[in-house]
Structures are given as structure tokens and as C-alpha cells.
Amino acid sequence: MRRFLISLSTGLGLLAAPVSAEAASDGADVVACKGCEALLDLAEASPGRKDDRARDVYRHPVETLLFMGVRPDMKVGEYAPGGGWYSRLLAPYLAKQGHLTGLFFNPDAGPFDPAKINAEAAAFAGKVEGWSGVPARSVSGMTLKDVPEAELGTFDRILLIRMLHNMRRWNIADSEIKAMRALLKPDGMIGIVQHRARADAPYAYTDGSKGYLRQVDVVHLMELNGFELVASSEINANPKDLANWPEGVWTLPPTHALKDKDRAKYDAIGESDRMTLLFRKRD
């Protein structure tokens, strides 16, 4: 079952309906985006994603973007886009009416090579065009350092996909989230997908070094940085993941930190158990 969130404007000719209680947190005033699913399915099937689809069974990208209310007319920021797994889906989806911006680390904030980060941001639009065929004018890239004033308060959504653990262990989570908050419109939202630790996991296992974070800690971190949780989903849950591997989340596919040791066992588990959360910027 696919879960939906947020209505599209009537000008796009798409209809709205209530979201299921299964998808929304208590009191979340959210509605479904009918019509977005078909457009996302087309984007998901684009030729540029032919090598990405093997991971769809674990990452549920269409369901995740629908849950986060990502509409084709939105300005969307993708934080730390990396190799472009989500970019190759977002770019064709947003190409006609919206805009995709790759948001790269503040090069001065963490253990980075500033020249490399700046170069990646500058090259992002061209890379996406090469991957997806979407014209570079529909895409942009920038770092979270010295954000242009014209960009502040202009983003509808920012996606933070499987990256918050790195932000924690590099001690840049607060500063990067603060920068992202400034980019969002007053009613803008951040959607988070993150490897999920067990609720009773010790701090040494949930400080980012193992890739897993406790869901309660993620919610608390976002609340401290000016957001409120409006919905959560089990779209990306995996009850087979015990989330207690000595080598952390990288024990599981696709990384396989232990190489061929017990590979069949970890392949049978699949990718990590993940929380999927949506936060609204609050006044």
C-alpha cells in the first residue's frame, strides 16, 4: 500500500483526499496527493534509473516522496546528493514545474576538502543532466556556506536521506540543520530517512559512528532546531535488521563491510531498518 501526503494545488488538476491514520502522526493535518503517484511512477521508470531499481525494494522511493508530500511544482533541496540515487528520480519529476537543488555540506564545517565540495556543488546540475537528460536549467547546486539571500525562505521541501548519522559524528548536525531551516518557506518541511537503532541501544552505538540513531533522539534534535514532527511512517522499516552489528549499518547490503563472510545471511536481511519522518518548520 502506498501512503500519500499533502495536497496539490487545484491549478494542476489533481485531487486531494485524507491521508490514512497509519501514515500520519496524531493530529497531523495532512491530505493525500492523488495524481502525483502516476507522475512519480513515470520518473521512477526513466532510463537513467536502470541501475538504481535494484534498491527500490528496500528504499521505496516513490512511496517515500509521496509520504513527504513532494509535488512536481515544488522547489526541493536534496542534502548531500552523493552519487545521485535520489537525484535521478527527483530531476525528471520536478523538471517541468519545479526545481531540484543539490545542497552540499558547508565546506568549512566538517572534515572536508573545501575545494572538492565547492567543485561538486558547481558540477551538480551538469551531472544530473548527464544522468537523466533533464536540462541543467531545472537543477542547481550550492553549499550551505554563505547561502545567497535570494534563496532564503524559498524551498518547499528539503530531503535528508540516510545522512544524519554522518552529521552527528562530524558534529555538524546543528549548524547544517539551522542553514536548511533558513532556506525553507514558513510552512516548509524536512523529510528524513535514517537508519534506526533500537530504542534501548546505548549511546556509544547511537552517536553516529555505527550509522544508527534512535528515533526519539532524531525527533528531539529536530525540535531543538525549530521543527515539529507532523508525520511518521514505517514505509522503510525492516524488522529483520537487529541493528546491533559490531561493524554498524555497513555490515548489511549494499556495503557488505564483512565482504563475503556470512554474505548470504546479510543479503537475506536486506538493507537497514529505517525511520521515515516529516518535520515542519515552526514559528
Low-confidence stretches: 1-31
**Overall average pLDDT:** 89
> How many domains, as an integer?
1
> Briefly, what CATH class?
Alpha Beta
How would you spell out the order of helices and strands?
EEHHHEHEHEEHHEHEHE
Read across the widest sheet, the strand sequence of neighbours is 5-4-3-6-7-9-8
Into which percent range does the helicity of residues fall? 25-40%
Radius of gyration: 18 Å
| Count of β-strands | 9
- Which fold name corresponds to the CATH topology? Rossmann fold
**CATH architecture annotation:** 3-Layer(aba) Sandwich
Strand content: 15-25%
Keywords:
disordered N terminus, single chain, 29% helix, seven-stranded mixed β-sheet, 9 strands, S-AdoMet-dep_MeTrfase_Alr7345, methyltransferase, alpha/beta, 283 residues, two-stranded antiparallel ribbon, signal, Rossmann fold
Can you give a write-up of this model?
The protein has 283 residues and is an alpha/beta fold. The protein has helices spanning 36-44, 56-59, 61-67, 87-94, 114-132, 164-169, 173-183, 215-224, 263-269, and strands at 16-18, 31-33, 75-79, 99-104, 139-143, 155-161, 184-195, 227-233, 274-281. The protein has one domain: Vaccinia Virus protein VP39 (Rossmann fold, 3-Layer(aba) Sandwich). A 7-stranded mixed β-sheet has the order 5-4-3-6-7-9-8, with helices on both faces. Strands 1-2 form a two-stranded antiparallel sheet. Helix 5 (114-132) links the parallel strand 4 and strand 5 (139-143). The protein is globular and about 45 Å long. The chain starts with 15 loop residues before the first strand and ends with a strand. Residues 1-31 have low confidence and may be disordered.
